[in-house]
Every structure is written in structure tokens, then in C-alpha cells.
Amino acid sequence: MKKLVSAVSGVLAGFLAATVFFADFTNIGSQSSAEDSTNKSNAEKVYVPFGKLDEYYLFASGGHSGQMFIYGVPSMRHIRTVPVFSPDSATGYGFDKHSKELMGDYTWGDLHHPAFSETNGDYDGKWLFATDVGNSRAAVMDLKTFTTKDIINVPNTSGPHCAAFVTENTEYMFLPTRFAVPIGREYASLDDYSQKYRGVMSAVTFDEKTEKLNIAYQVALPPWSYDLSDAGKKMSKDWAVMTTYNTEEATTNLEINASQADRDYIILFNWKELEKMVADGKYENITGQKMIFPEKQKGGIYLVPVAKSPHGVDVTPDGTRFIASGKLAPSMTVFSFEKAFEAIKNKDFAGDRNGIPILKYESVMEREVNPENALGPLHTQFDDKGMAYTTMFISSEIVKWDPNTGETLDRVPVQYSPGHSVAAEGDTVSPDGKYIIALNKIAKDSYLSVGPSHPESMQLIDLSGDKMEVIQSAPVNPEPHYAQMIKADKLNPLKIYPKEENRPDSVWKQEDTRIERKGNEVHVYGVALRSKFIFDAKAERPDVIEVNEGDKVFIHLTNIDLDQDITHGFAINSYNLNMEVQPGQTNTLEFVADKAGTYPLYCTNFCSALHQEMTGYFLVKPKK
Amino acid sequence: MSRKMSVSSVILSCISAVLLGVSIFFPWWGMKFIAPQYPEGLDIIVYPYKMDGRIDIINGLNHYIGMQEFSEQTFPELSYLPYLVGGMALLILIVALVKRTRLLLLLVALFSVGGVLGLYDINRWLTTFGTNLDPKAPIQIDPFVPPILGENTLANFVTHSYFATGAFLMGASFLLLVMTLWRERKK
């Protein structure tokens, strides 16, 4: 018994000593542990383990990179870059025949505001539209393949910044211009700005079958700058709104001269009415376009005065209001569609400008919202309860407020200077709430330094709690302007291209590969498979293409590895040519063999254990 | 022994015939290839009349070890097997109708021989493909014979061979027939 007691007490003493010496009491009740647990829960909110996938896709515009960046939310992992307006050697975009034709002679673009196709005002996950402010183009991306299907040059317009926005059932995508130019972009002295310059807006349609964009008609609006826009929803679905600046019609030093007038305008227009005017022949044929001149073909377009130089204008999810952000005025103005319709019905106008009737500010305005010390309101998104979230560029924060009362509900600082923000399906008729991402223009010291040139910064904000909370930050290449966030299950991308045996220029069996000569044209119908190229199965060396100097060469290559993620590349050494061939895809390179000599060709996209052996030769016999 | 079969025996034989007939439309045998890059697995699924699964991809990968390509055309069995099986089902049905116990014995014997031949045939093909490897293949491996049933490891692939629904239906058909014979013997 005595032995037992001493044994037990010995063990207890040992435990006590161990506890005293080795246990860590330092963080009991301390501040750091509370912070640690907050950070831990934030980390858990954004961690997506292998085998699980993100809940949302983020399509962030790439600005002057001309590309579209695809991210996953909430992990904020960059998944892919899709080239749209700029060449991309990684995917062969701008090198293969189709994308080379799409690009024309352009080598860059300024991709601004992306917009998903919609059905009944909600994202349908089929197409993504985008505009190029740099070279006045518009593009459409297929969300099955994440590739650009068509690019259209928009005539008479210079920089469709005020786009893209699509109507409730993707009837139209409207492209109003940022810069006014003379019709046809002809030369005209800036002294004649007010007479000869115009701010042309284009109504673009998209044909899903042919996958082609087309301009239905244009409207020769006054020579002002058109900044941002939104389509109506539900009760306002036939309407659209867009902000203007430089209604002063200044032609130099816009920073000062376009900031003089107390009021600029929101253009309010009824696209159904414009469509009818075009159908009734109320337009003029100019530069091959059906052009409506508002001062001559009257109707459907109205001006709403707004605090000077507004930036964003956003329609509430229920479609009853549109909210203009002041930019220079420290407030948001809530306008009522219902009041506007009433005023239009009663012809309650305060004169006109350039032949377009002006509605009275007081008769359309519902309230001015001015959160204390909030400066530089730019863009507004919405949550599932219809609450508004406005980015404040100058005071570097997002302000949550109630459009019904104007009451400020919450504020969260972001680093630094947000331009746009994007909430989960936050510009549709049914936003999801959950997340909003601040697209910050300034990153400064947020990330490891890479020298004087900085990435931009995106901050993910959790909307599920009482307070907005920044839970993740991700660097992004220059430069997201707007973005779109869509529930991942709305998209159903292809894993491989379908085996379409009748596809022009495709070959599916090794023995069908061949090289055909027609005069000085050489057509190669080849296949790529792990781990070889076969251009002509019957040749002594099936992976060799031999041509004469000056021949026009067409290389059609089909990737017959119908296996997920087995991409092959095809490059000709020193010929400045590279393209990608996805599983089941047929892709074409078209070029003139203008350099005689010996050029190895090889697979550029690591495909298999014997990828290094996936090579051949392109031989160009010199002219005699 | 040459007595007529009982009513319940006739019904059991008919069920046996139907199960065998139906089995034609189900996969009999399969092999699943699993690799680090293919956690979802690549399948070969064999029906009496066709092959399913990701044959092209498996062929593409097999060429690295110099295995011959295979397809439905490689196996002439697929063109006559459904008729053999259908014929057997018909025979069972006929025996059930003429109700001869002695013929029942013959059926079971025929069925057994067919089954053994089938297994032999599968093994023959597995041996042919596993041992006739192109000596010029980029990856040299020793000839091998994957098992008809169970697991095998080859390079980065683990293969699982298994019998499928059709084989189980056939097995059930056979057991029913044996059971019928057993009942008739006891009488």
C-alpha cells in the first residue's frame, strides 16, 4: 500500500513539473490568439482543398493586356488567362488561322467591361462579351471552350468604354463611345467639334448559330464622352441608362475643361423604340450603317440631369431605380424609373439639348445619398436583399447602403483605391450576396515587391456576416476594370472537343493523313498524338514536311488524343509560328515558306513521357 | 431419368433461359486501368457483341510498351458470341418445353463446356496481347499475362479485372439449371 501511494504521488509530481515547465500559458486570453483565430477562420473560408472546386468563377477584364483573367472564388486562385484582343503564344492565339483573322492587324487591345449573356435578366452561362477601348472592337467568348469566337470592328466609334451591357434576353449589346469623332473617323478640325463630331453608340446583335457579331444600327449621339451604362431590368427592361461627361464639349485639357458644368446628363433610352424606328425606316444610311440622328429621327432618347461628371450608373435588381455615382460629387443619386416614365408621359421637359428632350432633375430624382466622408463613388453592385455596395475610389473603401432609405449600413476599407467591384451575380435580377471583390487600382506594398511596376490587387470580401470582412487578397496582372462573377454550376465547359468526322480539314485516322500539292500551295492534313506528328502516313518519314521556297503552306493538324488535358502544340523553329491543338480540335497554320532552309518542328505543349521526341522537320528547298 | 420434368422445374428452366438471353445485353467482363494521372480509371468493358470504354486511349498508351492495338474487329467472337448465347438460351427453353430430364443433364454439360471455353478464350487473348510485344517499343517490359480476375500492376498502372452484370446473370442462369437438375434427380 505504501509503495502504491509513493508510486502514484511520484507520477503526479512528474505531471505537475512537466506542466509547469513545458506548458504554454503565454496566449491565454491574449489579443494575438483572438487575431489568430480570426485569421484561421478567414483562411478556412478561402481554402479549397485538392479534389474540391471553387464555388464561383470570376472573369476579370485584363484591361490593356487585352486578355481575360479567370479566377476561382473564394480561393482567388488564377486558373487561366484567355486571350481576346492580344496575341498569346501560349495558346497560339493570333498565330493560327482563325484567331489571326479575328485579330486582323491589331496586336493589342484594352479590354474593359465584360458582360455575360442573359436570359430573363439572369446569367445563362453561355457567352461572355467584352469591348476593346483601345482599338474600338467588341468580342464574344464561348463559355463552353473559353475561346474567343468573334471580334467585330465598330465603325464611327472610338473607344467603347461605356459598354458592354446586354439587354435582359441578350437581344442587344450596346456600345456607346468614350471619345467623340467625326462620322467615318474622317479628318475634321477640333474647331468644328460641336458641329462635326459625334458620340456614336452601336447596337450589336449576336447570332448564336453562326457565332457572329453584327451591328444592327447606330445612334449619332451628341459629341460628349459616354462613360458607363446599364440595361434596365423587369419593369425597365426595354430601357437603358448611360452616364456622360464633357457635355461642355471641351476639346483640350479635359481634366479642367470637362469639369466646369454643374450638371452632366444620364442618357435614358428605350431600345425597343429605337428598334421600331429602324424597322420603320427612320434612319439614314451612312458609312454602310443604319444611323439614327436624334435631332432628326425623334423619340426614345431623353436626358436626365445629374451631378457633374458621374461615373457608374447601375440599375437595382428589381429594375425600379438607377443609381448614378458622383465621382466628383461625394454622393450617389438614386433615380426612379417610374418617375422618369411618368415625366416622359406628361412631356414634363425642361427644354432640350442637341434636339434631345431634358427631363427635370427633381421630377426623376428620388434621393441623394451622401455617406459621411465617403469620397469618389464610382460603381455599385447589389446583394440578394437588394442592398447596394458602392466603391469609393478616393476614400478607398466599399460602402454598403440601403437604396430604399439611403441609410449607410456598413463600410470596409480596401487597399487601395477600388475602381469597380464585382459581387456574386451582383448586376443581375437575382444577386447571390455572399461575396464582393474590390478591384483595386493601387497595390503598393500588398505583395512581395517586383520593382517599380506593380500588379493590381483584388480583395475578396465576405458578405455573409453582419459586417463586411476582407478575407483574401490576390495580385492580378494589369488591369481589371470590371469583372463578372458567376456560380460555377451555371457553366458546363467541354473537356475535349467532340470527334466531328465531317469537320473540314480534319483527319481522324493515321492512315488518312496526307500532303497535297496544288500549284504552289501545299496542304498538309496531319494528326498529333502521343508522342508523334503524322503528316503523311505513306511517306518514308511521316513527320517531315518538305516544300519549295515561296510555297503557300496550310498545315491542318487534328489532335486525335481524345483524352482530357492532352494538349499538343506545334511550332516551327525560327519561323515565328506556334499553335495549340486541344484534344479533338483541328487547328490550321497558314503561311508562306519565305525562308529556305532546315527548320525543326516540335510539340510545344508537354504532352507525354516522350514529348521531347515529338518532333519532325520542315524542309524548305531554295529557289533555283 | 427420362421422366417428365415437374412444373416448377419447367418454370425454373424458363427463368434460366430468360436470364441467359438477357445477359447478352449487359457487359460480361471488364478491366479498369488506374494510374496517378487517371484516378478516375480507364475502362475496357466487354459485351458479348461489342466493346465499350476508352479503348482508343488505352491503345494510345499501350503503344509505348509495344502492345498491339485492339478493337471490336480484333475479336471475331463478338460477331458470333451473341448467337451462341442466344442459341443456348433457346435450347434451354426447348428442353423446358419438351420437359426431358435427360436433356437437362446434357444442357448443364454443354453450359459447363461453354463456360470453360469462354474462360480459356479470354486467357488466350490476354496472353496474346501481353506477350506479343513489339521489340522496338520505347518502353521495354517483360511479357506478362493479366489475370482474368483480380489485380495486376504494370508500370504506373494498376489493372482490375472483373466479371460484370452479364456474367452474373449467366452464372445465375447456370445455377438455376443445376438446381433444376438436382431437384429432378432427387425424385
Automatic annotation (TrEMBL), chain A:
Q: Please list the coiled coil stretches.
A: none
Record's InterPro entries?
Answer: CcO_II-like_C, Cupredoxin, EfeO_Cupredoxin, N2O_reductase_N, N2OR_C, Nitrous_oxide_Rdtase_Sec-dep, Nos_propeller, NosZ/Cyto_c_oxidase_sub2
| Record-linked Gene3D superfamilies | Cupredoxins - blue copper proteins (2.60.40.420), YVTN repeat-like/Quinoprotein amine dehydrogenase (2.130.10.10)
Leader sequence residues: 1-23
Q: What is its main location?
A: periplasm
**What highest taxon heads this organism's lineage?**
Bacteria
Key words of the record: Copper, Metal-binding, Oxidoreductase, Periplasm, Signal
UniProt domain Cytochrome oxidase subunit II copper A binding: residue ranges? 519-624
Enumerate the subcellular locations listed in this protein's record, separating them with semicolons.
Answer: Periplasm
Gene Ontology MF terms in the entry:
nitrous-oxide reductase activity
For this protein, what is the EC number?
1.7.2.4
Report what the protein is called: Nitrous-oxide reductase
The organism is: Ammoniphilus resinae
TrEMBL record, chain B:
**Sorted UniProt keywords:** Membrane, Transmembrane, Transmembrane helix
Q: Where are the transmembrane segments?
A: 7-29, 80-98, 103-120, 162-182
- The name this protein carries in UniProt is Transmembrane protein
Q: Which organism does this record belong to?
A: Ammoniphilus resinae
Could you read off the lineage of the organism from its UniProt record? Answer: Bacteria, Bacillati, Bacillota, Bacilli, Bacillales
